[in-house]
Design brief:
This protein has 209 residues and is mainly alpha-helical. It has 10 helices and no strands. The protein is globular. Belongs to the GLTP family.
Length: 209
């Protein structure tokens, strides 16, 4: 794969490293998995620009927290939630750049990508990727987007390449190899998503403005 090109193996390796034995989600590999997913979105062209630009901004914001003066509290999602909640719920709700709010936005987009990749993996060879993408979007991100964004997204999805073209973008060899690796990668992404969902639900953070 060319430098800067998307490679599914990198995403797999990053999400594999994310979860510790104590079911903590480490931010470093989480963000590096996200960079991989962003390259995936960017390789699909302008269609996904509205989502990839937003993801880039959020990932960079989180990297800022990791490098900032409270960096040690941003080692894992669990540590971040503890730290940000300790400052009081009012402060958390009032801060658009808080780690919790930022991760929540990434978390919602991750569900869409997870459903979309799973849809690609299990679909027939001649399935319409636009349909797979729209269904995944409607079951995840759509609920959090204003109507005008939803409309633009669904329109954009119509221009998506074929399933085989998608599998080629994965940069791991022929379509069947990409399908096999998706089968390996998706459970790791699901696990990270599930633990995050549980953590945020437990602390009532799923609807942070």
């Amino acid at each position: 794969a060319a430098p800067g090109a998307f490679c599914l193996r990198e995403v797999l390796d990053a999400f594999k490293r994310c979860v510790t034995e104590r079911r903590e989600v480490l931010l470093e590999p989480y963000l590096s998995g996200w960079w991989g997913l962003i390259r995936f979105l960017q390789s699909l062209g302008a269609v996904f620009a509205f989502i990839s630009k937003d993801a880039v901004a959020k990932v960079q914001l989180m990297e800022g927290h990791r490098r900032g003066q409270h960096g040690e509290h941003y080692e894992s999602l669990q540590a971040m939630v503890r730290f940000e909640l300790s400052r009081g719920p009012a402060e958390l709700r009032g801060r658009p750049d808080s780690g919790c709010r930022t991760v929540l936005r990434l978390h919602r987009a991750l569900l869409w990508l997870q459903l979309f990749l799973e849809g690609l993996r299990t679909a027939h060879r001649d399935s319409r990727t636009a349909t797979i993408c729209t269904e995944s979007y409607n079951a995840s991100l759509a609920a959090h987007h204003p109507w005008v964004v939803r409309k633009a997204a669904t329109l954009a999805f119509c221009a998506l390449p074929s399933r085989d073209a998608f599998l080629e973008v994965m940069n791991v060899g022929p379509p069947e190899q990409a399908v096999a690796m998706l089968g390996e990668a998706i459970p790791y992404i699901q696990s990270v998503y599930g633990i995050t969902q549980e953590l945020f639900a437990q602390h009532r953070l799923l609807d942070l403005p």
